[in-house]
UniProtKB/TrEMBL annotation:
Gene3D superfamilies: P-loop containing nucleotide triphosphate hydrolases (3.40.50.300)
SUPFAM superfamilies: P-loop containing nucleoside triphosphate hydrolases
Enzyme class, spelled out: hydrolase
Source superkingdom: Bacteria
Alphabetical list of PANTHER family matching this protein: ALIPHATIC SULFONATES IMPORT ATP-BINDING PROTEIN SSUB (PTHR42788:SF13), TAURINE IMPORT ATP-BINDING PROTEIN-RELATED (PTHR42788)
Similarity annotation: Belongs to the ABC transporter superfamily.
PROSITE patterns: ABC_TRANSPORTER_1, ABC_TRANSPORTER_2
Keyword Mitochondrion: no
Protein name: Bicarbonate transport ATP-binding protein CmpD
Length: 261
C-alpha cells in the first residue's frame, strides 16, 4: 500500500502557525485572529468551538484553499501558498459521484493527477477493506448507507497519499451509534498510516475521545483560547468516556467555552 508517507523527525513540527489571521470582505469580517501553534508528526488535534469561530477557515488555510491575511503558516517547514499534495481534506458530506462504484470513487484523486495503474487499483481496494467495506467495492453510492458513504470518502482521502489529513465535521450528519463506530475506525486508521490529523467538531466528548490535543476556540473573531492536552494513549476504547478523568477534561473544555460566550 502507498498510504504511508515519510514522516519528519519527531522533533519537527508538521503544521505550524505564528500570528495566523484571516479576514473576509476587505477586513469587515475577522474569521481567524492571531493563531499560533505547532502540531507534532502523527498527532491528532481536534478543533472545538461555536459556529463561525474559524475552525473550518483554519482547515482551509492549512489546505491552501484560501490565502491567509496575516501571520505565517507552514506545512513540513514550507510556507503554504497554494493547495498541496501532502495535505488532504474531507468534508461533512461524502460528495461521491453517483455513477461510479465505491472503488471508482476512491480512485478519483489518482485519475485527476495521472493514469491509474494496477497498483493504484489494488491500493484502492485495500483501503476499502481497511475501512470495513471489502464486500462493497463495486456498490454504487445509492446502495450504501450514510455511514458507508463516509467510509468511502475516508478511503478516497487516504488514496491521495497525503500525510496531513483535515476532516471538517465528517460524521456530523450521522446517527450517534454510527458516529461512534466511525470514530473508533478513524482513530485506528490514522494510527496505522501515521497521519497527522486535524478534526473539526462541535461535540466536546468526540473532540477529546479522538485527540492528543484539543484546540478550544473562541467566538468570532476566532482565536485559540487554550490548547488542552489529552493524556490517554491512542487508540482508546469507547468505555474511556465513562471515566472520571475523561469527564474532568470534558468539564474543563466546557468551562473554557463558557468563559468566552
Amino acid at each position: 500500500m502507498n498510504v504511508m508517507a515519510s514522516q519528519p523527525s519527531k522533533t519537527d513540527s508538521v503544521v505550524g502557525a505564528q500570528g495566523l489571521g484571516k479576514t473576509f470582505g476587505g477586513g469587515a469580517v475577522v474569521a481567524l485572529e492571531d493563531a499560533s501553534f505547532d502540531i507534532r508528526p502523527g498527532s491528532f488535534v481536534s478543533l472545538v468551538g461555536p459556529s463561525g469561530c474559524g475552525k473550518s477557515t483554519l482547515l482551509r488555510l492549512i489546505a491552501g484553499l484560501i490565502e491567509r491575511t496575516s501571520g505565517n503558516l507552514q506545512v513540513h517547514g514550507k510556507e503554504v501558498t497554494d493547495p498541496r499534495t501532502d495535505v488532504g481534506m474531507m468534508f461533512q458530506k461524502a460528495t461521491l459521484l453517483d455513477w461510479r462504484t465505491a472503488v471508482e470513487n476512491v480512485l478519483l484523486p489518482t485519475e485527476v493527477s495521472r493514469a491509474v495503474t494496477k497498483e493504484d487499483q489494488k491500493n484502492a481496494a485495500e483501503l476499502l477493506r481497511m475501512v470495513g467495506l471489502k464486500d462493497f467495492l463495486f456498490a454504487f453510492p445509492s446502495q450504501l448507507s450514510g455511514g458507508m458513504q463516509q467510509r468511502v470518502a475516508l478511503a478516497r482521502l487516504l488514496q491521495t497519499g497525503a500525510d496531513v489529513l483535515l476532516l471538517d465535521e465528517p460524521f456530523g450528519a450521522l446517527d450517534e451509534f454510527t458516529r461512534e463506530r466511525l470514530n473508533v475506525e478513524l482513530m485506528r486508521i490514522v494510527k496505522e498510516v501515521q497521519a497527522t490529523t486535524l478534526f473539526v467538531t462541535h461535540n466536546i466528548a468526540e473532540a477529546i475521545f479522538l485527540a492528543d490535543q484539543v484546540f478550544v476556540m473562541t467566538p468570532r473573531p476566532g482565536r485559540i483560547a487554550k490548547i488542552v492536552d489529552v493524556p490517554f494513549d491512542r487508540p482508546r476504547p469507547l468505555s474511556i468516556q465513562t471515566s472520571p478523568e475523561f469527564n474532568t477534561l470534558v468539564a474543563e473544555v466546557r468551562d473554557i467555552l463558557g468563559e468566552d460566550h
